[in-house]
């Protein structure tokens, strides 16, 4: 069923990063809006925006510093009006939006799991002692160090294609990627084993796409409310509240996942960056109670950790 279109005079400008995954997410957003309002592709214009995190490829993300390495320039474009909506991987989104912007539209979530990717092994436990694991994610590095302190960790940046090339060249024996990214890119040929959340809890918001808009743009607000996926929003409310209370940045190893199983079930974990300790906990509550549950679980873990836990 199509809804009456707000008949945009000009194409709706969709802002995105230029990586193949970001473009796939922008295309999915265009497809869902087009289907909801009976609009052709020509009613949309995809605008690629260069972000700091993509421009700098030769340094570890934690050394570039600051929040929003993958989002800042896109939010600036939204505020100045050169785009109308911004499509984001929610995993890369800071917990607070700048004044004047709103993020309250989520697409149905993809697979939340990490994928263990290797040309020679099926999982962390099969890697020979001293093997090299490539990852730039503080969370994955800490989770790996906790489980396999013998492995050597190396930084691994770049898109999926670049990382597969590095594995082929022997730069590392294995890496982790999000299942969501592999699925969205249709990369069926990448040798992957899905890692269950019970083995390794994924990042907050992994697999979720969020669409940001100007707070003042009522026409766009109405369009986005037609494609918003409520269950994903309820889960992310819990996970992002957990992250916010932990003051999570990309400098802190944090994992979190909420599921709807009649109620809302939130699991969370914080780790020391070197993997020498981890503290985990969970909450169960009403589906609309995510924000309070997330904050409460974060406070419990922070109290257990004590000062200086992150080192
Ligand atoms: N920080 C990079 C990033 N941001 C979102 C995804 C994957 C897609 C998703 O989780 O929605 C990735 C790459 C990865 O972890 O493999």
Automatic annotation (TrEMBL):
A GO term, aspect molecular function: hydroxymethylbilane synthase activity
Question: What does it catalyze?
Answer: 4 porphobilinogen + H2O = hydroxymethylbilane + 4 NH4(+)
Which of UniProt's keywords are assigned here? Answer: Porphyrin biosynthesis, Transferase
Biological process (GO) annotations held by this record are: protoporphyrinogen IX biosynthetic process
Annotated cofactor note: Binds 1 dipyrromethane group covalently.
The record's annotation in Pfam families points to: Porphobil_deam, Porphobil_deamC
Q: Which residues form the Porphobilinogen deaminase C-terminal domain?
A: 235-302
List, alphabetically, the GO terms of the cellular component aspect: cytoplasm
Pathway as given in its UniProt record:
Porphyrin-containing compound metabolism; protoporphyrin-IX biosynthesis; coproporphyrinogen-III from 5-aminolevulinate: step 2/4
Which branch of life, at top level? Bacteria
**Gene3D superfamilies reported in the protein's UniProt record:** Periplasmic binding protein-like II, Porphobilinogen deaminase, C-terminal domain
- Misc. remarks from the entry: The porphobilinogen subunits are added to the dipyrromethane group.
Give the record's subunit note: Monomer.
**How is this protein named in the record?**
Porphobilinogen deaminase
Q: Name the species this protein comes from.
A: Stagnihabitans tardus
């Amino acid at each position: 069923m199509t809804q009456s279109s707000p008949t945009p005079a000009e194409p709706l400008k969709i802002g995105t990063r230029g990586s193949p995954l970001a473009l796939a997410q922008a295309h999915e957003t265009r497809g869902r809006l087009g289907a909801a309002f009976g609009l052709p592709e020509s009613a949309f214009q995809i605008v690629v925006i260069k972000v700091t995190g993509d421009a700098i490829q030769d340094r570890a993300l934690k050394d570039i510093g600051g929040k929003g390495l993958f989002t800042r320039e896109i939010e600036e474009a939204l505020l100045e009006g050169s785009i109308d909506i911004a499509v984001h991987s929610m995993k890369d989104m800071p917990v607070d939006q700048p004044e004047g912007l709103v993020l309250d539209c989520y697409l149905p979530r993809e697979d939340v799991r990490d994928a263990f990717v290797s040309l020679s092994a099926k999982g962390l436990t099969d890697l020979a002692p001293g093997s090299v694991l490539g990852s730039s994610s503080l969370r994955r590095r800490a989770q790996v160090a906790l489980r396999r302190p013998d492995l050597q960790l190396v930084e691994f940046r770049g898109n999926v294609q670049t990382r597969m090339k590095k594995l082929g060249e022997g730069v590392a024996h294995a890496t982790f990627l999000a299942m969501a990214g592999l699925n969205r890119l249709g990369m069926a040929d990448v040798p992957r084993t899905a890692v269950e959340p019970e083995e390794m809890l994924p990042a907050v918001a992994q697999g979720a796409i969020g669409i940001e808009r100007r707070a003042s743009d009522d026409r766009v607000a109405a369009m986005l409310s037609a494609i918003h996926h409520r269950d994903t929003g309820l889960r992310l409310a819990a996970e992002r509240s957990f992250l916010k209370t932990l003051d999570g940045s990309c400098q802190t190893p944090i994992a979190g996942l909420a599921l709807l199983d009649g109620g809302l079930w939130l699991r969370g974990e914080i780790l020391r960056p070197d993997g020498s300790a981890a503290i985990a906990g969970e909450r169960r509550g009403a589906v609309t109670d995510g924000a309070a549950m997330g904050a409460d679980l974060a406070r419990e873990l922070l109290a257990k950790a004590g000062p200086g836990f992150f080192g």
